[in-house]
Design goal:
Blueprint: H1 6-9, H2 15-28, E1 34-35, H3 47-58, H4 71-85, E2 94-97, H5 99-111, E3 117-121, H6 127-134, E4 138-142, H7 154-160, E5 165-171, H8 183-194, E6 199-203, H9 219-222, E7 230-235, E8 248-251, H10 254-265, H11 273-284, H12 286-311, E9 317-318, E10 326-330, E11 338-339, E12 342-343, H13 347-358, E13 360-361, E14 363-364, E15 373-377, H14 382-398
Parallel strand pairs: 1-13, 3-4, 3-5, 5-6, 6-7
Antiparallel strand pairs: 2-8, 7-8, 9-10, 10-15, 11-12, 14-15
Helix pairs in contact: 3-11, 4-11, 5-6, 5-10, 12-14
This protein binds pyridoxal-5'-phosphate.
The site of pyridoxal-5'-phosphate has 13 residues, from α5.
Organism: Halanaerobium congolense
Keywords: Aminotransferase, Pyridoxal phosphate, Transferase
Enzyme class: transferase
Length: 400
């Protein structure tokens, strides 16, 4: 029978990538689009990292590496981690995957049984539920509250845990709303998890993009005694402007990493060798810290500008993000309004009409589990932010 699998039928296309695709097509057709859609830095990969890739090719480093990663990269990664977070992983406790996405896929595939539930607080990064489903598990969403800045509380977590719970995913700083858990908030959550037989997947991919002098702590450095339970997701994409290089890093017990390596050995094998060499050089270089710090300051200024401009638009509500590079904007007051007779019914129709009438691409909140919201990225120049937000203001003013 020529049927495609039921498992794949349950998977949705990434709505964030769909928006970028639509905006790119309109731009290619000559339209002047301001796109707040992409989840990636607008800065180029630092020059010295690109040079390291060229050097790798010149030296002929173009063959396979070991499945779990180039030894030099694993070494740089654990040293970099120890330098930043006073926790020493060994090199058999790290795996190099094709982006944080593959870290998550491998990690979940290694632990999930068919009836297992993975707890995901809402709003969530678009791919978590789909990766859970691909791995054969069931996403179970936990509602959070705006007054807690969408952060999960210990009571909410406790109430959600059942016999089917296999793991919980915590993302801080978060995509799509930039919330950030303080040490004491993390401690309260972990006290609940410590008493249960469940894993924690801590997605720390935006760890270096944190504003107003906030200090990031990795989950593992706060709870080294839970090392068998915790998997940390990180990677080169966001902090180092290397989204296209596809280098993700997973840190966990050697047992969990070995299972993930087994999966990777029969799927993608090692990550692109040249990208691994360049990443090894990047993480070992003192230059990286300064570049990341400088860029973070620029993001903070763009965030402040975005917050100021959004505050002047009637009908939009948002919380200034503590980290990452997104604003998650509540559009509920604009739902059921119309533009030239066309009604805004939900986040998807808002997104479509905004693109059609004012040539601005944003991501519908439904992609993150909340249909009264849109997400905009502020990884754009100040000029583009000003232009794009003034178009959103014009769109909102035209609604009746
Ligand atoms: N985790 C979060 C919260 C993200 O926003 C992303 C990318 O958008 C990723 C993980 C995966 O990034 P990559 O696969 O590029 O490393």
């Amino acid at each position: 029978m020529m049927d495609y699998s039921a498992r794949i039928a349950k998977i949705e296309e990434s709505k964030t990538l769909a928006v970028s695709k639509k905006a790119d097509k309109l731009t290619a057709d000559g339209e002047d689009i301001v796109s707040f859609g992409a989840g990636e830095p607008d800065f180029p990969t630092p020059e010295f990292i690109k040079k390291a890739a060229v050097e790798a090719m010149d030296k002929g480093y173009t063959g396979y590496t070991s499945v779990s990663g180039l030894p030099e990269l694993k070494e740089s990664a654990v040293n970099y981690f120890a330098d930043n977070y006073s926790y020493e992983y060994s090199t058999d406790e790290v795996i190099v995957c094709n982006g944080g996405k593959q870290v998550l896929f491998n990690a979940l595939s290694a632990i999930v049984e068919p009836e297992d539930e993975i707890l995901i607080p809402k709003p969530y990064w678009v791919s978590y539920p789909e990766i859970v489903k691909l791995a054969g598990g069931k996403p179970r969403f936990i509602e959070t509250k705006v007054e807690n800045k969408y952060k999960l509380t210990a009571a909410e977590l406790k109430a959600a845990i059942t016999d089917q719970t296999k793991a919980v995913i915590i993302n801080s700083p978060s995509n799509p709303d930039g919330h950030f858990y303080s040490k004491s908030e993390l401690r309260q959550l972990i006290e609940i998890i410590a008493a249960e037989d469940i894993f924690i997947i801590s997605d720390e991919i935006y760890d270096k993009l944190l504003y107003d002098g906030r200090d990031f702590s990795s989950m593992i450095e706060l709870f080294p005694e839970l090392k068998e339970k915790i998997l940390v997701v990180n990677g080169m994409s966001k902090s180092y402007s290397m989204t296209g290089w596809r280098v993700g890093l997973g840190f966990a017990s050697s047992e969990w990493i070995a299972k993930m390596t087994k999966i990777q050995s029969h799927t993608t094998s090692n990550v692109n060798t040249i990208a691994q060499y360049a990443s090894a050089k990047a993480l070992a270089s003192p230059e990286l810290k300064k570049i990341v710090k400088d860029r973070c300051q620029i993001y903070q200024k763009r965030r402040d500008l975005t917050a100021k401009l959004l505050a002047d638009i009637a009908g939009l509500k948002t919380i200034t993000p503590a980290g990452a590079f997104y604003f998650f904007i509540d559009i509920s007051e604009l739902i059921s309004k119309k533009i030239e007779g066309q009604e805004i019914e939900d986040s998807l129709s808002f997104t479509d009409l905004l693109l059609e009438y004012n040539k601005v691409a944003v991501v519908p909140g439904i992609a993150f589990g909340m249909d009264n919201f849109i997400r905009i990225s502020f990884a754009l120049s100040k000029e583009k932010i000003r232009e794009g937000i003034s178009r959103i203001a014009d769109f909102a003013a035209r609604l009746e």
